[in-house]
Specification:
207 residues, alpha/beta, four-stranded parallel β-sheet, globular, WbqC family protein, WbqC
């Protein structure tokens, strides 16, 4: 049980399962949009389960407008979009629900939002809907270092170079993964992994 009114998270590209566990536990996601951009974080990358195990997908960004996360523009001069779509197809085309959700996901990517924050926010809201998760989403509007009681601050807790926080690790229930027969169950991947493999049943793994 999460005893917080909302979960405060950094913006994330195809966020990991923990984001949505927090959303399910609080009913509100507060996305930090007043911070400086941080490299090598979930802000512009995600992890999926590919045929060789865990695989990272990274969105290239330009910071010519400043270091603020709001100034992080997506660099479409590099073929990352096509590479990511091919990687997702390769990893999940045999999963039970990939074809069902593919168009909903790819339509946002193909719309080519200008900023990283816009792309991530649209993807997060779409994923909440596909998961059937009732949760409000707001942006902070400004950076606040410390929040008071009622805000579960996960801005630095969920990170690709850190282990899954204890509060979520114990809640991970193994679900079917396409390549689990080769490498076993991998927790903490992008929620896409859960959605493509479990479909409408994905919500039960978040509660």
């Amino acid at each position: 049980m999460i005893n917080s009114a909302c979960a405060l998270v950094s913006t994330a590209y195809f966020p990991p399962v923990e984001y949505f566990m927090a959303a399910a536990g609080t009913g509100k996601l507060l996305i930090e949009d007043g911070e400086s951009y941080v490299k090598q974080s979930y802000r512009n990358r995600c992890r999926i389960y590919a045929c060789d195990g865990s695989m990272s997908l990274t969105v290239p960004v330009s910071l010519s407008g400043g270091r603020s996360i709001r100034s992080a523009k997506i660099d479409y001069s590099k073929p990352w979009l096509q590479q990511h779509e091919r990687a997702l197809i390769s990893a999940y085309r045999t999963s039970a629900f990939f074809e069902y959700y593919q168009d909903d996901i790819f339509s946002i990517l193909d719309s080519r939002p200008e900023s990283l924050l816009e792309l991530n926010t649209k993807l997060t809201i779409r994923l909440l809907g596909l998961l059937g998760l009732k949760c409000t989403v707001e942006l902070t509007g400004q950076y606040v270092k410390e929040y008071g009681h009622g805000v579960m601050d996960l801005r630095d807790a969920i990170h690709p170079k850190k282990t899954v926080p204890d509060m979520f690790r114990d809640r991970f229930k193994p679900y079917y993964q396409v390549f689990s027969d080769k490498y076993g169950f991998i927790p903490g991947l992008s929620v896409l992994d859960l959605l493509f493999n479990e479909g409408p049943n994905a919500l039960t793994f978040l509660l």
